[in-house]
Amino acid sequence: MKALYIASTGMAAQERNVEVISNNIANMRTTGFKRQRAEFQDLLYQAYRRAGSSTSEAGTQVPVGIEIGSGVKVSATSRVMSQGNVAPTEKELDLAIRGEGFFTITLPDGRTAYTRDGTFERDGAGRMVTVDGYEVEPGIIIPEDATAVSISRDGIVEAFINQGSEPVQLGQIQMARFVNKAGLESMGDNLFLETAASGQPQIGVPGMDGMGSLLQGYLESANVNAVTEMADLISAQRAYEMNARVISGADQMLQATAQLR
Q: Contacts for 86-92 with beta carbons within 8 Å, 24 or more apart?
């Protein structure tokens, strides 16, 4: 009975849906996290009677055919790149992006990654790095005798070397934006990689060419809404239960057929 296999695809699809929702909920406190949404597509159809087929020599046609679908599949897990809330942290190297763009990060293997997580630190060499020690492009070094660091909205980094002296400019943070930012590949650790779907990065400075501005001493929270995720979770659970009921109903029908004398 095809209903068994059709309902099983529905259960498998909702299982994937719950996995996506659970990952969103698990990352509610992850800085710069962007929630995902499962997208579905129906599977192939078997046509028992095609619409428009001839029913007589006079040229009459079937207005509506008979098609039975094969179920459902998860076609994509699209990432929602909307702006998350911005919260103060009181750390001078914490940065939040208000608007479009990503920080550019140099990985140990030489590749460039992109992130919305502005939790930056200073390593032993004075370089501005992520919490994993990856250098923030274009390679800003903060002197060890700097008493304070100032980062403007357009990404200019300045350091105060001696109290009462004029600040010294250390460099300017660069950012990247993409034609299709939802097409970026997630690699974990709050990092994304460029793909053919995302397009090549457009490098610029904060506040120009469509780039967002920076907020020093702030971090962007995950754009996960707990109420929305719980509502989606309940819907997925009920859809899973209904598909399970279909399997149970089909089993009862097969059992009744097997008991015929």
A: 86/215, 86/218, 86/219, 86/220, 86/221, 87/218, 87/219, 87/221, 88/217, 88/218, 89/217, 89/218, 89/219, 90/217, 91/217, 92/148, 92/149, 92/150, 92/151, 92/216, 92/217
Closest CA to 40 of 10, 6, 18: 10
- pTM (2 d.p.): 0.86
CA distance 17 to 40: 9
Can you read off the two tokens belonging to residue 198? 């995302």
pLDDT tens, residue by residue, 17-54: 999 999 999 999 999 999 999 999 999 988 888 888 88
Beta bridge partners of 66: 49
CA distance 236 to 77: 15
Beta bridge partners of 148: 160
Residue 176 falls in which region: left (phi positive, over 0), alpha (psi -120 to 50) or beta: beta
Q: If pLDDT is split at 50, 70 and 90, which confidence band does 2 have? A: confident
State the Cα–Cα distance between residues 146 and 177, nearest whole angstrom.
31
